[in-house]
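pls design
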């Protein structure tokens, strides 16, 4: 089976591994309607996986995405950003034709 086209950069892999070791959870990414550009990313830590989820595994990092959201995320990369004001996961989506100034929503 081929790995779906979704990348997890090294720092994000390390953070997800740390979360899994401490809490036993993985990251779920969902695309929902909303925000200033039409769609928003929703990131949750979860224990349950659905049978139809797209599962991305790189090294020890695991991300699950429902099929509808994955259609909008294919080719994207998950990054982990560390700044003075805090740290967070960020989805870099090459399919997004626009995004709002805060980076919280995108349009196609």
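designed seq:
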């Amino acid at each position: 089976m081929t790995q779906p086209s979704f990348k997890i950069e090294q720092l994000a892999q390390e953070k997800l591994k740390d979360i899994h070791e401490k809490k036993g959870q993985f990251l779920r990414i969902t695309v929902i309607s909303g925000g200033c550009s039409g769609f928003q990313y929703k990131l949750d830590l979860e224990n349950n996986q659905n049978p139809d989820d797209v599962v991305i595994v790189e090294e020890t990092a695991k991300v699950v995405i429902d099929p509808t959201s994955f259609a909008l995320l294919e080719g994207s990369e998950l990054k982990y950003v560390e700044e003075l004001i805090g740290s967070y996961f960020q989805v870099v989506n090459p399919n997004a034709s626009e995004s709002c100034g805060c980076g919280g929503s995108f349009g196609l």
